[in-house]
Amino acid sequence: MKRFDHRKYHPMPVVPMHDRHWPNNRITRAPIWASVDLRDGNQALLEPMNVEQKRKLWALLVNLGLKEIEVGFPSASQPDYDFVRWLIEEGQIPPDVTIQVLVQAREELIRKTFESLKGVHRAIVHVYNSTSRVQRERVFKRDREGIKSIAVKGAQLLQREAANHPQTEWVFQYSPESFSNTEWDYAVEVCEAVIDVWQPTPQQRCIINLPATVESTTPNLFADQIEYFCRQLRHRESVIISVHTHNDRGCAVAAAELAILAGADRVEGTLLGNGERTGNMDLVTMAMNLYSQGVDPEIDLSRPDEIIQVYAQCTGLPVHPRHPWVGELVYTAFSGSHQDAIRKCLHQQQPDQPWQVAYLPIDPRDIGRDYQAVVRVNSQSGKGGVAYVLERDYGLVLPRWIQQELAAMVQQASETHQGEIDSATIHAMFRNQFVADTTPVRLDGYRLDRQNEVDIIEAEISDKNRPMTIRGMGEGAISAFIDAWTQAYGMSAKVIDYSEHAIGEGTDAEAVAYVQIEVDGRRITGAAFDHDSLSASLRSLISALNLAQHERRAA
Asked: What's 441-554's CATH class?
């Protein structure tokens, strides 16, 4: 087997800039978003979208609030051409939405592109050509001046064709494709040559889009490239700087964020990162990143499941369950320590406080996820997760000592079944293990009196359906009942811990009681339910004592 040889690759050169400003900046507002789902994303699909799928995805993008949407490559694809015509002729473009189309810097393609846009109220025409050294030398066989002349000719052709359609508001956009692999000074030189043709103003700006066509380095170096470009460019106030990052190194979102810090105004990307190779910059992830930092993303991501559904239907691509922010499992904790921390934080979180919950960077309810899936239990879970799901689904606030016992049982069951244990199963395990207030002994009734600061109980019980009365005294009803039981059965028991609470509110509320007793040096836990809290406490004692009797017989 041939050795994995890293020596065939070389690192990108460092940008010659020693007073960079971007590391000290913060993102305080959303960039201009531009969706390229219908063009770049569609071109990357094994089976490109049909007309119905394009229309469905278009409707989603508009409903999310995206204002600039690249809809195709009409000069290179008849379906794209027809889709652009449908948008215009059927009045599908809202007044505040601008469509964008892509075209190479070639005369016949530019002419057909403007033909496809006839009658549109406003459009961005995006022209590009490759500028990197490898493209110049190995693909186009041209020198720097030759490649720059292609860009200038494309800019002139856009200007000429636009003049033939004065009823439309035109915005010109130029991309030096493979910008991130282009020499820094040369990228500025080519773009300034294009800008000199268009003569933009602060009132009518053009767009210069700087793509990481192939992500080749770390995000900080891309940020250096963007800051260098912004600082060197003449007439910066007349230009919207846009970035279009790809995800070859898995850093497309980070590169776009750092580019904004470095001076970029606009970001192109796709929903959930669809695109060539490893994909484009994920608009959902970056927008949610802003949201989590208290910045309004200015697009509506409150219904991610709808986004995922339409995305899957239109692209045929799945969404990973661990996809940032919107994956099925991203707000789910299986780890016991995580579950315990989440449960404790949620109990303390107040509606008017800034969000501070361990392991949950945002409130899942903000994007339509409820707390039902936040904690799920498997063999990696602990007492916190078990307690959380029982409290969430059944209103049971388990004392710590029951949590520990039950969690061990749940873990064993999960290991046996090799999978997740749902809350209904955990609830059944709780009742089967701790609620034993009817067999063999059950409580039929009681009378409690107090004489000379001593509580006296007379309890009617049935032992294997045989009625009997037991009597005892003590400090409190529980102590008196233990005395009565000891006299009747000769079993000495000591209460170690006790807890009770109501489930629900009002007249329909039910009481649950938990008790831990010590019998023959062993600790036994019991629980019971009743509409009366004292009855629930006595029944929980009977549960524990019945279980103790069963253990005695088994021994």
From this structure: alpha beta
